Amino acid sequence: MRILVVGNGAREDALSWRLAQSPSCSAIFAAPGNAGTASRGENWDCPATNGKKLAHLCVDNNIDLVVLGPETAIAAGVADQLRERGIVTFGPSRSSGRLESSKIFSKKFMERHGVPTANAVVMHTLETALKALEAWPGGCVVKADGLAAGKGVVVTEDALTARAVVTDWYANNRVPGGGTGVLLEEKLAGREVSMFALCDGRAMLPFAAACDYKRAGDGDTGPNTGGMGAYSPPSELPKDMFDQVREKILAPVLRGLLAEGETYVGVLYCGLMWTERGPQVIEFNVRFGDPETQVLMPLMSGDFAQLLKSCADGAIDASVARLSQQSCVGVVLASDGYPKTSTPLAGLPATFELEENSQAFWGGSVLRDGKVDVNGGRVLTVAATGPTVPSARASAYDAVRKIAEQLDKAGASLTHRTDIAKDIP
Fold this sequence. Notes:
This protein has helices at 10-20, 35-38, 51-60, 71-75, 78-84, 98-101, 103-112, 126-133, 159-171, 241-259, 292-296, 304-312, 389-409, and strands spanning 2-7, 27-32, 42-43, 65-68, 89-90, 120-123, 140-144, 153-156, 182-186, 191-200, 204-212, 215-217, 221-224, 229-232, 265-275, 278-285, 300-302, 321-323, 327-334, 345-349, 358-362, 365-368, 371-374, 378-386. Helix 3 packs across helix 5 and helix 8 packs antiparallel against helix 9. It has 4 domains: 2-93, 3-Layer(aba) Sandwich (Rossmann fold), CATH 3.40.50; 120-186, Dna Ligase, domain 1, CATH 3.30.1490; 191-323, ATP-grasp fold, B domain (D-amino Acid Aminotransferase, Chain A, domain 1), CATH 3.30.470; 327-409, Glycinamide Ribonucleotide Synthetase, Chain A, domain 4, CATH 3.90.600. 49% of the residues are buried. By secondary structure, it is an alpha+beta fold.
């Protein structure tokens, strides 16, 4: 197969890396891609959201499968435009993509179809938000309705702090992602986990799980980011967690989608809080997560490309690929000031000398004359495998140190959390 990966982040680099190793993959392309995807295939100068241009390029280049990476492409209806041209696509339609692109739609969908989730109220003005918070018990999670690149959620410990958040958002006309919709949600207590299910329109199959770290600083301090690291498999969760998720979450979601005339094809990311009552949905994403994908792809074996193709064809074949029994830990290296600022860097090394069990995936970047220029923000995700999470963690941080030394020679430095997967058995 000739395969196109849409997007330009570390997630897409990891997907491209694994897909290129699939026996059924003969050529790999990326749009717009980054320095990593350029090293193993051809990058196209086309925005991830330009479905019309992507469709033309796919036809001209005889693409057999398109894998959509970022949520922006899905929200822009790229999958719909590709399918209209008869192009086999792994990724949901714009309509079913509202499970991520609108937190208010997603919450109401879950309430309609009995999907376990936190209690919440919808706000559209500062006045109604402040009134709702007058008698708010305990912690409050404040969520902007639209897409906000992982920065539209603020977890607060009390109503007073939540009042300050909504006041800032509304008073300064800067609700993340635009619009006026805000969700006020009860703060759940438990173990947070990211669960991924593959969907072919008729079935949903849970196939992988990971835990990520969203805060910028050690000890889960600082502002929310797009994710500063992850590990897989999760620890301290029930052995039947996949069965519970299939029964309590995926089954009612699938019934609800079909009842509402939606055919969901792609991956469904279930952000869960595992509470005393079992799994509760914090959020849905309609694509592979970042940085979770960077720790799942090194664990994948078999024909991953054929697995995604079978989903896109409407008949998932889970026998063609599987996750290994090993563990993987990923650490994100970011530019100074992230997430408040993104500092561009130029002239970075294109490759790094790492052990065989370690891999570095590029974020937004361009390969020029054998060197890499980056946009800043989350520059690299360094992932390493091992028989246990502690051994994988040791290898990951060893790789981080080696990369830091090589970057130092280029006059560049990146920051990272030092506690990813710390104390995980």
